[in-house]
Amino acid sequence: xxxxxxSGGGLVQPGGxxxxxxxxxxxxxxxxxxxxxxxxxxxxRELVATITGLGATNYADSVxxxxxxxxxxxxxxxxxxxxxxxxxxxxxYYCSYRQYWGQGTQVTVSS
Length: 111
Description:
Elements: E1 2-7, E2 10-12, E3 18-26, E4 34-39, E5 46-51, E6 57-59, E7 67-72, E8 77-82, E9 91-97, E10 100-101, E11 105-109
Parallel strand pairs: 2-11
Antiparallel strand pairs: 1-3, 3-8, 4-5, 4-9, 5-6, 7-8, 9-10, 9-11
């Protein structure tokens, strides 16, 4: 069993930054990637970024150059550094590992 706990969401002005964290507990194996997804009301959950155990990353086109995913394998924690935030980045952000999901953390970008 795996548990994922996100933190770091909040309200930020356009152009601002936030750092999300996801702490994982349970049977975590480096061979599997971890990721961040986001969802807004009425829309499907979409991929934001993923990172493998060896550090290979993948980003949605909409966040490339603004968001950075990283992973601390010793702490079983994955991070999402979000810069130059836009109102359209407003969503609930979810951490994922295999079939497991966190509870989500709200990010609101508004002036």
